[in-house]
Amino acid sequence: MSLQQQLTDLFAPAFAAEGVDPSFGAVAVSQRPELADYQCNGALGAAKAAGRNPRALAEAVLGRVDAPDLIASLDIAGPGFINITVVDAALAAVADSMAGSDRLDVDAVSEPSTVIVDYGGPNMSKALHVGHLRAAIIGESVKRLFRFLGHETIGDIHMGDWGMPMGQLIVELQDRRPELVYFDAGYDVEANGPYPTESPVTLDDLSEMYPVITQRCAEDPEVAERARVATFELQNGRAGYLALWQHFHDVSVTEQRKDFEALGVEFDLWYGESTVRDRLEPMVQRALAAGVARESDGAVVVDVTRPEDKKELPPLLLTRSDGSYLYSTTDLATIEMRVQDMGMDLGLYVVDARQGLHLEQVFRAARIMGILPDDAGVEHIAFGTVNGKDGKPFKTREGGVLRLADLIALVTDAARARLDEANIAEGYPPQEREEIARQVGVAALKFGDLSNHRTSNYIFDLERFSAFEGKTGPYLQYSAVRIKSILRKASDGGLEARDIVAPTVAQERDLMLRLARLPETINRAADLRAPNVLAEYAYEVATDFSRFYEHCHILSEPDSVRQASWLRLVSLTLDVLTRLLDLLGIEIPDRM
Ligand code: ARG
Question: Which of 9, 64, 548, 549 could form a disulfide with 14 if both were Cys (CB 3.0 to 4.6 A apart)?
Fold first, then answer.
């Protein structure tokens, strides 16, 4: 049990014994670390609720807390804040217990939920670019966090692969290469053999075609109409289009997989909108039959606005007037699939904040249509944009959108330059050095992102992100690698770690106290769905460690009990950093 929980478990009954709600006994980290380790502010609220004097109530509570093994001192500050200082030996025992636990004493949830993290979400036929970065990085971290807490967690990429862009690409290709068999409506697989196995296009072709055809559709209603028809026919199973779509799909996925892999982003499921294609029609029919959807100018809509809405929400479109399905339709059918086939309790949608209205409509409609049961939840885990130094969405110097692959190359180059500059990983085999540069580059990128609260926009500042000093990914990696090297040296010198004993140096105590906060920190990050809580804490752990290491000369310490205790503390610090970085999706090189 965490230290904070142990303290809360002492204070809650003390408040209860005073006749107020035990929840007032909640203990928190001290806001004034120079005064105390923890604090309990419940007396103020409790006194208000009970019409009593807060200081007097705090006094009474103190009289009921008796735990000399755990609490070194208690005092009341201001109107009734209780300051708590923990016994050194108890602090050491907490650290020692963490060091002996696989999970670092972070409890797994007692009732695991099935959590589906919907993230990444690229549209098919597009090369990944900087716009996909945050969904991938934040989603990966949220997924790892829930999984670590013991939930049955499934990451699904939910590709955009069944909407209008598909019809548009079909039309564009038809205009360029009308002779392809896919466009021959009379093509007979029985008589003429199967469609070719080789794709007629590469992902580069598709990426080039996509802006061309969207432009054409915008300018020419006739082209737009053909794209609509092609989309409808694809969705209704026209064989040649389906065969072509499969090629689009396969070339996209092959390329996108590589980019995600380079980023260390791993999906459990590569499902997409198309996965639920057979559910669309019955779902719409059911909604119409149940009277929760209605026809409107040939289209089918669901009204989702509520009387209390300040601004009326537009109805959700289930089908267009030509019968084709939309982004909302596939999102709804996907919820249905996740609930029915996967037992989803919680769906976390890591999606750009600008899609807030879309998701709100979908989530509401899902309840109205009876797709999402009352005991299941869905949430939009929104994020802001990556901006350039001009404060506008990040672009290349030429004003284009930066491809993810190029971005990864860019950060790797920056990392390599920093390694050279600082003489890090000098003289290593070139292959290892290159791998370190990639790991450091990706860490710079990810930490640069994850250290901001997800809803804020941030400025992409490669210089700052890739520095080995300050709140950066490379600094944290370097801290962890340094600890590995200390432990290696100790082990080479025949030194062994043993029980963590009571701290004798302030910096040592600070480090223990910091490490003891791991369980709450991880839970808080999960509750807020906010990886930046982990990023912030990882940085604090690293800086506390660095101060500790400056003051405690482990390898030359004459007192062997102290030395052995320090070694175990060092190793615990490494385990904590490793866990945190893993939850952020950041790898640690073995050495550098
Ligand atoms: N494909 C969408 C896009 O590119 C993102 C998908 C997000 N997930 C979802 N279930 N809507 O904007």
Answer: 64
CATH of the domain at 52: 3.30.1360.70
Pair (575, 503) in one structural domain: yes
What is the pLDDT, as a whole number, of residue 201? 97
* 174 shares its domain with 156: no
Q: What is the 3-state secondary structure (H, E, C) of 125-194?
A: CCCCEHHHHHHHHHHHHHHHHHHHCCCEEEEECCEECCCHHHHHHHHHHHHHCCCCHHHCCCCCHHHHCC
Residue 35 in domain: yes
Average pLDDT rounded to a whole number, residues 272-296: 97
How many domains in the chain?
Answer: 4
Q: Nearest residue CA, atom 11 of ligand 1?
A: 331
Residue 396 pLDDT exceeds 90: no
* Residue 433 and residue 536 share a domain: yes
What is the whole-number distance in angstroms between the Cα of residue 114 and the centre of ligand 1?
A: 21
| Closest atom, ligand 1, to C-alpha of 351 | 7
| Ligand 1 center to 263 CA (angstroms) | 19
pLDDT of 289 higher than 90: yes
- Measure 349 CA to ligand 1 centroid, in angstroms: 9
326 and 193, same structural domain? Answer: no
| Residue 314 banded pLDDT, cuts 50, 70, 90 | very high
Of 148, 93, 91, give the one whose Cα is nearest residue 115. Answer: 148
Are residues 239 and 286 located together in one domain of the fold? no
The answer to whether residue 95 sits within a structural domain is no
Given 232, 256, 280, which residue is the final one in a domain? 256
Tell me which residue range forms the domain holding 215: 164-256
Q: Which atom of ligand 1 is nearest to the CA of 355?
A: 12
pTM more than 0.70 = yes
CA distances to 161, 298, 514, 537 from 174, rounded to whole Å, are 19, 29, 63, 55
Q: Which residues line ligand 1 (CB under 6 A)?
A: 118, 121, 123, 158, 160, 331, 349, 351
